[in-house]
Predict the 3D structure of the following.
Amino acid sequence: MTKRTPRHVNKARRRRFFPLVWLGAAGAALTLGLGISGTLAGFTASITNNANTASTGTLTLTETGVSGVGGTTTCASGTTTCPLNKFGGQTAMAPDIVLAGAVPSGTIPTNTDPDQNVGIVKMNNTGTSRAGTLTLAGNACTSTPNGSGQPNLCGTLDVAVYAAATAPTSGTSSTYGTQVFYGTATTLATTNLVVATNIAGGTSEWMTFVVWVDGSAGNTYQGLTASEPLVWTLST
Amino acid sequence: MIERRGRLLKAAALLSAGAVLLVGFSASATYGGYIGTVTNSADAASTGTTGYTHTYQSTNCTLAATTSASINCPGGIAPTSATPSSGSISVSDVITDNGTIPAQQISEQVSATSCGVVDLANQAEATNPLLPRYGTGYSPSTGPMTSSGSISLDGSTAYATDVISQAQPNPGLTLGNRYGIGVWFKTSGATGGPIFEIGTSPVNATGGDDRILYMNSSGHLVFVQNTGGSSTTTPGTYNDGAWHFVYVTMTAVNVLLSLDSTTTIYVDGQSVATGGGLLVGYSSDTGYWHLGWAPTSKTGLSSSYFSGSLSNFVVFDTSPAPASSPNPNPTTQAAFNTWAAAATEQWELNDTGTTTFAGPFPVIGSTSPCTMVNIMWGFTTPTSCAVAPESTTAACTTSASLTTFVAAGWQTVASVGPSGTQTSTISISRGSSYNAYISGLHLYVPLGYRAQSIPSLSWSLTFSWPGATAALTA
């Protein structure tokens, strides 16, 4: 036989329970109010914490010419026509060494004459956030003129790319840093390279491009121009 | 009452969940990736070009490497006049750089690929060619017959001699012996000239001259036998500028006396003159055949040299020679060769002027004439020297023999650079071992000039002067 609870006892429980319900509802309303601009505001008791703030960081990329790239301008993040020429814009290149070796041991010309171009740019993370990766992607390479019988210079224009956390010295290959690419402009055009990682805000990465005409290029490769847009991307 | 409270609880829970959800949605953007990009649109590089123009002796030769890797240029960049008895003779070549490759990226070199004495091949006796001298020209595909050639002689310096001293038998020693000598000739001169003879000198000096055929100043052909003891003259003249074939036969008709002879001159297949006779004998001779030269003391002419063209010089010194020349004249070289099949010497004279004879030679034996002629090859703007000594910065200080230069191979000189011009000067002189025997010999020394990209050398263009007119004259 079940013992019934006395009426006065139930009444007392209800009195204790009701404030909890309403307190929960009020909390929810307060939370809702904070989230949706106080549309359910209107309760009298409140505490305001005016120091609870948090700000997002920034991630911006700029590219600055150092040497051998046709200028020392700085291209802002989002620039689509940055004029810094990593191939150097040489107009009278002649064949140098034959492409030999592979990343990271591919050999590069040892001289600094017009047979090659050494272009250096500084990639700057000018934001406040730490970047996860800096990537380099090549777009399609075009060789001109491309009339009948004329070969494609892109296939014999050799490129070696280096990344360094400190400023390199043009002509001193030991300062160029880590070789991240070694191949032809044609290969670079289909490559998306992670050239650096974990780049703190306010720091820079120096990129060195050594470009030369492959030693296997014959007479028919004279008087040609290879052009290939390059895209830098800095990501969290 | 209880149901009402339940609904309120559910409403409060929903509100709480909704509020949290809304807060969650409103904060989600802060977790997206940040990206910054820069696109370089101007990454380009161009290759240079190589090309040169050589300007020399009133002509020029131009080549761009994109057109061809090599070119054979006309004429020559070296002196073609004979080496002077003292001092040297020089010729310059102005080289213009039409390319864009910087000078320090180009290796400029010169060379002579070979050196040899130009000869006129002997189809009947290969070891006994004629050696042309001085102003002898070559027309390997222009002659009196189809597929024949000829040489031209300038009338003042040019002649040719063979290299083996031969004993020509006396036709009179055996009854009925017949020997013959023939040659195609073309001249329009009014001074006449010697066409052939045999003499003891291997060059153009008088001695033992016999069996001389010459054209007198009127255009008549004259054959001298027994060292001027007798001569036979044609009644007709042949200095009409047309090709004619003359063939002379010598026949003994009385062996007992050895003094009864018959000389017959055939021109274009016709017997046009007969000489000899009783007490007009022949003599045996030992010497070198001379083409285009004979001493004036034997001909009475004003010049010892023939002016005109010659083709197919044939000698039959084994009896019996053909009784007469073909009638009519052969119209092809092949037909002529059939008639001349028994010739003991046959110089077709269809040579290019670029074939050479290595010896042995009369007088100098197996010593190459190339060791007796020196060359100096210098450059200015910028200054350098190929020979001698080889230097990319200093001027020449001495000369070296052609043999030494050939052996040295490609010699590097200073490069000129885009739009620049440099001057190449070649000087020829007689070396200390020079022998008079080689005077006037044609020395075939094909010179070359090349420019190559460095360090790869994969871009290269070469100029060559391989023609007969580039030969030096010793």
User: Anything to note?
Assistant: Confidence is low (pLDDT under 50) at residues 11-32 of chain B. The helical segments of chain B are 2-27, 296-299, 333-339, 402-408.
